[in-house]
Specification:
Elements (H helix, E strand, L loop, with lengths): L4 H8 L3 E6 L2 H4 L12 H4 L2 H4 L2 H6 L1 H16 L5 H9 L5 E6 L5 H5 L5 E2 L2 E8 L5 E3 L4 H6 L10 E5 L8 H13 L2 E5 L11 H7 L3 E5 L12 E3 L3 H18 L2
Parallel strand pairs: 1-2, 1-7, 2-3, 7-8, 8-9
Antiparallel strand pairs: 4-5, 4-6
Helix pairs in contact: 1-12, 7-12, 10-11
This protein binds ligand BV8 and zinc ion.
Zinc ion binds next to loops.
């Protein structure tokens, strides 16, 4: 499947390209998504594990679940999709990477900046004094009893749970990028979780060319300009190659 001339034209002439990624871009690294058949929410109850209520009612269980996910993330590598996005930064005057993922695989692939709308799995902080704890050097202590060394408050993962505000400046920067960009790529997300999922439509309302890269249809498929029904690890490296050829054919 080739990319449409319209898409390549929009991309090659774009000053600012913005990208929103979801769990799907890490799927080819072997990280389970949330809502696919074998997704995390098929096995675990999000309300119980990815919410403040869940954490407060059973901090040890939630802690163990995040340890389990950290273990998985620690054992995987960024894939060709992550790497293509890192390379894409150099192709445009302005490139904004926005991610819902907490696995930091974009950064490990070489992306210089990522707006982490839902926080990250690496950091943790005390709920009382907000002291920050890094998973790697606190492994033993954090495994048994996530308590703060300074004030013995509960230490929690630095992810955004359901019902929690997203980091205000990060969300604002993502919304501004969606308004300002000429091309918006929605990659590997079911586009079900707000307010992140509203970003492609903000871009669309601001006359950007919006593209979805996802093997499956999503709730926004009917409202984007182009859909690429391929895994990100295949589509993105190919997009880089075709963009390069397209630009050369225009000189
Ligand atoms: C907030 C924790 C308010 C971190 C997560 C009713 C209607 C509308 C909204 C709501 C509602 N009830 C509640 C809400 C708000 C809620 C929400 O949107 N709920 C939805 C589910 C209905 N949102 C919130 O609670 C947010 N906060 O709104 O606060 C507020 C306001 C003021 C004051 C106080 C509070 C907080 C949202 C963040 C929640 N945290 N996780 C963690 O543990 O990871 S959400 C969870 O879903 C993950 O963070 C994930 O990032 C996010 C989105 O999922 P996706 O990334 O899209 O993953 P998914 O599995 O769904 O899809 C993967 C896709 O990849 C699929 O389409 C698949 O086809 C595709 N794919 C697979 N393989 C590939 C691929 N694509 C490409 N290549 C491949 N190879
Ligand atoms: Zn503390």
């Amino acid at each position: 499947m080739n990319f449409s001339e319209e898409f390549l034209q929009a991309l090659s002439s774009a000053r600012h390209v913005a990208v929103l990624t979801g769990a799907g871009i890490s799927a080819e690294s072997g990280v389970a998504t949330f809502r696919d058949q074998d997704g995390l929410w098929q096995k675990f109850n999000p309300a119980e594990l990815a919410s403040m209520e869940g954490f407060m009612s059973n901090p040890a269980l939630v802690w163990e679940w995040y340890q389990h996910r950290r273990g998985i993330i620690g054992g995987v590598e960024p894939n060709e999709g992550h790497k293509a996005l890192a390379a894409m930064e150099q192709q445009f005057e302005k490139f904004t990477l926005i991610t819902q993922n907490v696995d930091r695989l974009h950064q490990r692939a070489g992306s210089s900046a990522a707006l982490e709308l839902h926080g990250n799995l690496v950091e943790n902080y005390c709920m009382d004094c907000r002291a920050v704890y890094h998973f790697a050097d606190e492994k033993a202590e954090l495994r048994e009893n996530p308590r703060c060394r300074d004030c013995s408050g509960l230490v929690r993962p630095a992810v955004v749970w359901f019902g929690e505000m997203l980091p205000v400046e990060t969300l604002r920067a993502a919304q501004i990028a969606a308004q300002d960009c000429q091309v918006f790529l929605s990659i590997g997300t079911s586009a079900e979780v707000m307010p992140a999922a509203g970003l492609p439509m903000i871009a669309r309302e601001n006359f950007a060319y919006v593209v979805e890269i996802n093997p499956q249809p999503t709730v926004i498929s009917g409202r984007v300009h182009s859909v690429i029904r391929e895994p990100a690890g295949i589509a993105l490296p190919r997009l880089l190659r075709e963009l390069d050829q397209f630009r050369k054919s225009r000189v």
